[in-house]
Automatic annotation (TrEMBL):
Keywords: Acetylation, Cell projection, Cilium, Cilium biogenesis/degradation, Coiled coil, Cytoplasm, Cytoskeleton, Differentiation, Phosphoprotein, Spermatogenesis. GO terms for molecular function: tubulin binding. This is Intraflagellar transport protein 81 homolog. Pfam families: IFT81_CH (PF18383). It comes from the Eukaryota. GO terms for cellular component: ciliary basal body; intraciliary transport particle B. Residues 137-253, 411-452, 483-591 form a coiled coil. Residues 368-377 have a biased composition (Basic and acidic residues). Component of the intraflagellar transport (IFT) complex B: together with IFT74, forms a tubulin-binding module that specifically mediates transport of tubulin within the cilium. Binds tubulin via its CH (calponin-homology)-like region. Required for ciliogenesis. Required for proper regulation of SHH signaling. Plays an important role during spermatogenesis by modulating the assembly and elongation of the sperm flagella. Residues 3-126 form the IFT81 calponin homology domain. Residues 368-391 are annotated as: Disordered. GO terms for biological process: cell differentiation; cilium assembly; intraciliary transport; spermatogenesis.
Amino acid sequence: MGDQMQFIVEKLNGEPFRKNYNLISFDSLEGLQLLQLLSDVLGEIDPKHAVDIREELPEQTAKRMLNLLGILKYKPPGTVSDLSAFRQGLVTGSKTVIHPVLHWLLQRTNELRTRAYLARFLVKLEVPAEFLQDDAVADFNKQYEELMEAFKNLHKEHEQLKISGLSTAEIRRDISAMEEEKDQLAKRVERLKKRVETVQNHQRMLEIARQLRLEKEREESLAQQKQEQKSQLFHAEQRLQRAQVQLKEMQQVVADSKPESLMKKLEEEINFNSYLATEKIPREMESKKTSVYFLQKVAAEPAMTQADLTALQSEMDEVNAEMNQLIEKRIITYEPTDSKFSMYRQQASIISRKKEAKAEELQAAKEEMSSLERQVEQKSSQAHEQGGSEVLTEDEFKQYVSKLRSKNTLYKKKRQEIAEITAEYGILQRTEELLRQRHEAVQQQLQAIEEKKGISGYSYTQEELERVSAVKSEMDEVKGQTLDNMSEMVKKLNAMVAEKKASLAPVIKELRQLRQSCQELTQECEEKKIQYDSCAAGLETNRSALEQEVKGLLEECAQEESNYRYINCMKRSLEIQLQRAKEEMKAYVSSDPQERRRAVREQYTRIILEQENLGKKLREKQKVVRESHGPNMKQMKMWQDFEQLMECKRECFLKQQNQAAIGQIIQEGGKDRLVL
C-alpha cells in the first residue's frame, strides 16, 4: 500500500495534474475529494468526464465512472471482487476502492487515453433481432458496421505511419536527391541523343525500338489478362462444382422427404413455439418484472451504511433460522401417504427443468445459427461488393498463406537491399560532394596561378582540346569498326551464295524433270475431272427428285397421324365429359340424400349459403365495432393521461428521495467535522 500511494502521489504531482500532494495530505483526503480526484484523472483520459461531481447526483457519478471503467476493461482486485461492494465503495469514496483504481489508471494513462478515444467509435450498438427484420434498419446497421471497419483500417494505417519513423526532413532530402538524379538523367539523355544523331537512319532505329517496347508491354498485358482469365475460369469451375453438389443434396432431400415427415417437423415446430409462447416466455417476463421491481426499489432507497448492512445481515440470519426450523418440523410431521405424491412431484419438477434447459439450448442454438447465417451473408455481400472472389477452401488458403510468406520474405530481402543501396548512395553522394568541393578549390587555385602567370583560360582550353580529341578518336574507331564489319559481312555472304549454288545444282536438274511429269499428270487429271462432274450432275438431279417425292409422302403421313391422334383425344375427352354428366344426373335424380350431397350443384349451393352467413356475421361485427369505437378511444385517452400523471408523481417522489439523501450526507459530513 505504501508503494502504491507513493506512486499515485508522484504521478499526481507531475504533469498534467500538478496537485502538490504528500503522503499525509493524500491519505487524509475525504471520500468526496477522492471521488473528485478520480473524476479529474478520468477526465484527463476522456475529456467528457472532466466534470464537477457536486453538480450531479451520486448515482449519476457512480454510473458514469463505472461505464468508463468498463470500457477501459478495469477488473476490481480480489479484495473487492464483489461488484455490489465495489459499487458501494465507489459511491461513498472508499479508499480501499479508489486507491487501486487510481494506481491502475496512472500506470497506463497513454494506453487508456487511446482506448477511450477508440471506444467512442468502436463500441457497437446492439440492435434487437426483431428490429433487423426491417430492411431500412438492416441497411443502416450494415452501413454502420462498414464505417466501423473503415475506421479500424484507417486507425491502423495511422499507427503504422507513426511507427515507420518517416519525417518531413527525410522526405525533403529524398525529393532533392531525386531531383538531382532527374537532372543527371536529363543531361545523360541529351548526350545520348547527340551521339545517336551522328548514326545513319537513327530515326528509323528509334521508331523500331519504340515499337519493340510497345509490343513487349502489350505482351505483358496479354499474359496478365490470360492469367486473370485462367483464375476466373478456375473460380467459375469451383462455383459450378459447389452448385452441383448443393443441387444433388437438395434433390436427395426432396426425394427423401414425404408428407408425413414434413407434417411431423411442422408439428414439432408448432409444439416448441407454443411452449415458448405459453410457458417459457411468460415465466421469464414475470421473473424479469419482479427483478426490475426489486432493482427499482433498491435504486430508490438512499445509500446504505455499514450499520444498515449489518441489520440486513442479521435479518437474513433470523429468516434462515426460521426456515430451518420449519423444515425440521415438516420432517418430523412427515406422513408416508405424502411420499408417493412427493416422488411424483420430484419427477415432474425434474422433467420440467430438463424441458426448460433443452428449450433454452434449442433457442440459443437457433439464435447462434441465425447470427452465423447473417454474418456469412454480410461477409459474402461485402466480398461481392469489393470485387473479391468466393471463399477459399482449406487447401487453397494454405497455398495462399505459403505464397504470402514467400512474398513476405522476398519483400523483406528487397527492402533490406534497398536500405543498403540507399545508405551506399548517401555515402557516394557525400563523397561526390567532397570531391566536387576539392575540384572547385583546385580549379580556383589553378585559375589564380594562371592569372598570376598571365595565361588565364589555359587549363579550360586544354580540357576542351582533350575532350574534342577523345571524341574524334572514338568516332574514328567506330567508323573503322563498322567498315571492317561490313567488309567481313560481304565476304561471308558471297561465300554462302556460292556454296548454296553448288549444292542446289543437282536439285534443280531433278526439279525440271519433275515439272514436266507434273504438267502431264495435271492434263490427265483435268480430263478425268470433267467426266466425273458430268456423271455426278446427272446423279444429283435424280437424287433431288427422289428426295422431294419422299419428303412430300412423309409430310402427308405425319399430317394424317396427327389428325388421327387429335380425333382420338377428342373422342376420349367427350366420353369422359359424357360419363361425368351421367354421374351428375344420376346423383341429382337419386332419392338418396347422401348421393345428392355429392352432386356438384349441391356442393356449390352449400358453399354459397355458408359465405352469405359469414358475410352477415362480419357485417354485424363491423357494426358493433363502429358503435364502440368512440367510447373505447375515449377510455384509452383517459388511461394515457392517468399513466402520465402517475409517471410525474414517480419522478417527483424520486427527486424528493434524492434530495433527502443528499441532505442526510451533508448533515453527516457536518457532524463528522464537528466531532473532529
